[in-house]
Write a structure and sequence with these properties.
The structure holds two protein chains of two kinds. By secondary structure, chain A is α+β, with helices and mostly antiparallel strands. Chain A has nine helices and seven strands, in the order ββαβββββαααααααα. Chain A has two domains: about 110 residues, Ubiquitin-like (UB roll), CATH 3.10.20.30; about 130 residues, Orthogonal Bundle (Fumarate Reductase Iron-sulfur Protein, Chain B, domain 2). The longest helix of chain A has 16 residues. The mean pLDDT of chain A is about 95. Classes of the chains: A alpha+beta, B mainly alpha.
Chain lengths: ~250, ~220
């Protein structure tokens, strides 16, 4: 199929970017979106141009590296998948495809479609962990009884790959879905309860410092999340944060 | 403790939710009094006279209500400003209609329409009432309220403007009530029930206010 691509090109974080038009032909519907981008880059390189920079790593929907805002949606028009799992069969011959970087003040553009998502890393570093005693007295996690319901919820929260689609699609660039998943995956488990109060306070504090917007409960983040993280975690985070603030 | 809570993004959302729920309680009370005007002049007059002369309502609840309204609007504008700042460059294509309801995305717009409606409503009812009681010191007449209400709704342009404003109020409430409970961290198991209540309330109350305005316009 033949496609008309409108891609955001930006030399670096300081220079102003713009949409650049490309035409690409002989694209198979069995290709993944990233393979289509590879074909485009080969064409650009052969023509002596600068290839389009974009993030990718595992290409299996696990690592959360790929981003791209495709035709107005993070990871494109398909649901429950990342850009690397998006296939060209979702498009038609002659389609125009807009490809932009994830946009947020907290995700500055490094080049073209590559954005700096280390704001998420700093939020994780602020409390997204469990301190484990490694002195030899560590309790085997499998010996701790955990309610099935909580184990399932914690596991669902832990499926968040931190890709940033929630921030990209939220009209306010809010990171609440990401933070709520990262807080809940620990606070639902007995091992995570010890540090639960400090964790939620510190992670929300860091989230605010990074410059993300406020959550207005539109629910767009849940719809676009490749892992389908539920909005219930945001309600849980609000609840946990209010209680922790009153405690400290 | 509370300062830390309300300095955070979640805290501000909780404050917004609490003020919103407070205004919803007031709106319900306002509706229940107004609907009596449709079936009983005397009951409406009695209730209005009580609300207009009771010192607790006049000098304690009324200032709290005005403060609540102001807080909700000012905080709404602050949050909207912060949210716009969080994305300095907009997308060329943003397909938000594919993942969220329009009512949830345009709360600030429906809020601005409601704010302008409140201006007219104050000009129509509240300011004349304050003049009557506290500036002109006119004699207390417990039977004047129903007649005054009916008189206000004889202008068709005003009735149409009121009804349009109530449509925007419905759009605001449909998302606002459910969103408030989410911000307050209500238990997940009730979220579907809360959504149903929110939709029913958001449509029923503004529809009821529309009915009152149209009823008085048509029946007199």
């Amino acid at each position: 199929m033949k496609l008309f691509l409108k891609i955001w090109r930006q030399k670096d974080s300081k220079e102003k970017g713009k949409i650049v038009n490309y035409e690409i032909d002989k694209i198979s519907e069995d290709m993944s979106f990233l393979e289509m981008m590879d074909v485009l880059n080969e064409k650009i390189v052969l023509e002596g141009g600068d290839p389009v920079a974009f993030d990718h790593d595992c290409r299996e929907g696990i690592c959360g590296s790929c981003s791209m805002f495709i035709n107005g949606e993070p990871h494109g028009p398909d649901r429950g998948v990342t850009t690397c799992q998006l296939h060209m069969r979702k498009f038609k011959d002659g389609d125009t495809i807009y490809i932009e970087p994830f946009r947020s003040r907290a995700f500055p553009i490094i080049k073209d479609l590559v954005v700096d998502r280390t704001a998420f890393d700093r939020i994780q570093q602020a409390g997204g962990y469990i301190s484990i005693n490694t002195s030899g007295n560590t309790l085997d996690a499998n010996t701790i009884p955990i309610e099935k319901e909580n184990a399932d919820k914690a596991f669902d929260a832990a499926t968040c790959i931190g890709c940033g689609a929630c921030v990209a699609t939220c009209k306010n660039s809010s990171a609440m879905l990401f933070v709520s998943a990262k807080v809940s995956q620990f606070s639902l488990l007995p091992q995570g309860k010890v540090e639960a109060t400090d964790r939620v306070l510190n992670m929300v504090k860091q989230m605010d410092l990074e410059g993300f917007g406020n959550c207005t409960n539109t629910g767009a983040c849940h719809v676009e999340c490749p892992k389908g993280i539920s909005l219930d975690y945001i309600a849980k985070l609000n609840n946990e944060y209010a209680k922790a603030s009153l405690k400290k | 403790m509370l300062k830390k809570l309300f300095n955070s993004s979640i805290g501000r959302k909780i404050a917004m939710a609490l003020s919103g729920i407070f205004l919803i309680v007031f709106l319900t009370q306002h509706f229940l009094i107004n609907i009596t005007s449709v079936f009983s002049d005397s009951l409406f007059n009695w209730l209005s006279h009580f609300m207009g002369t009771n010192p607790l309502v006049q000098f304690v609840l009324q200032p709290i209500l005005i403060a609540g309204v102001l807080f909700h609007f000012v905080m709404g504008f602050i949050l909207d400003y912060q949210n716009r700042k969080a994305r300095p460059v907009n997308y060329a294509v943003f397909s938000s209609s594919k993942n969220s309801l329009m009512v949830s995305r345009y709360m600030i717009l429906s809020g601005i329409v409601i704010l302008s409606f409140l201006g007219l409503h104050f000009y129509d009812f509240w300011i004349p009432e304050m003049e009557y009681k506290y500036i002109e010191f006119k004699p207390d007449d417990p039977n004047r309220y129903h007649h005054e209400l009916v008189e206000k709704f004889q202008d068709p342009i005003k009735v149409v403007f009121y009804c349009i404003s109530f449509v925007f109020l419905a759009l605001h409430l449909v998302h606002g009530l459910a969103s408030s409970t989410q911000s307050l961290g209500t238990s997940n198991r009730y979220s579907s029930l809360i959504k149903k209540i929110s939709y029913s309330f958001g449509i029923f109350i503004p529809l009821g206010f529309c009915f009152i305005a149209i009823y008085h316009f048509l029946s007199h």
